[in-house]
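Help needed: design a sequence for this.
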């Protein structure tokens, strides 16, 4: 456990620096612009593996069970309050949640903050992130991740975002800041 925690902490420092650089570069551009360098493809259905199940407490203390989201497309976002790239994506995921919820999209945020709710609750209480200026008033469920979940999902750095199909299988896993338009296209395809 300690080895992973040190590894995640070491990666956190590098990810924070990279995230800040990305945020600085993208903040100067119009918010509708995204990096075109990162393009993903959905895994073919026969190559998708089942997403590891979890049950973790949300901010209200009630359990969030991934199994309860079967039949929906799930955007699973591993993030942290110190991660600049993560905070850049949060407003995009809030937009996707609002736009596609009725079609069957569910967004779940998994915070990997070492201080857990002590760091996350104040972050959730604000409406704008002072670093990025982005909207952080998440309406979707947020849970606190742990080392076991990080290992199960092969989390090596953040942000890391997965798209889980309606059958509970991982259709896409992306490490780093996603290309917003590309990612939205994948969401639309999975919702069909």
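Sure. Designed sequence:
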């Amino acid at each position: 456990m300690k080895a992973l925690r040190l590894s995640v902490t070491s990666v956190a420092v590098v990810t924070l620096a990279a995230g800040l650089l990305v945020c600085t570069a993208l903040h100067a551009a119009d918010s509708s612009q995204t990096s075109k360098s990162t393009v993903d493809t959905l895994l073919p259905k026969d190559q998708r593996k089942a997403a590891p199940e979890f049950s973790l407490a949300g901010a209200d203390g009630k359990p969030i069970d991934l199994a309860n989201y079967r039949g929906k497309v799930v955007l699973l976002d591993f993030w942290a309050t110190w991660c600049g790239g993560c905070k850049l994506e949060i407003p995009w995921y809030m937009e996707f949640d609002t736009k596609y919820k009725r079609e069957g999209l569910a967004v779940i945020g998994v915070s990997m903050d070492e201080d857990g709710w002590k760091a996350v609750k104040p972050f959730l209480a604000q409406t704008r992130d002072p670093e990025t200026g982005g909207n952080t008033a998440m309406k979707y469920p947020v849970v606190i991740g742990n080392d076991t979940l990080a290992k199960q999902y092969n989390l090596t750095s953040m942000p890391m975002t997965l798209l889980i199909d309606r059958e509970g299988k991982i259709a896409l896993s992306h490490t780093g800041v996603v290309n917003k338009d590309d990612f939205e296209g994948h969401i639309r395809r999975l919702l069909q």
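The domain at 2-191 is CATH 3.40.30.10 (Glutaredoxin).
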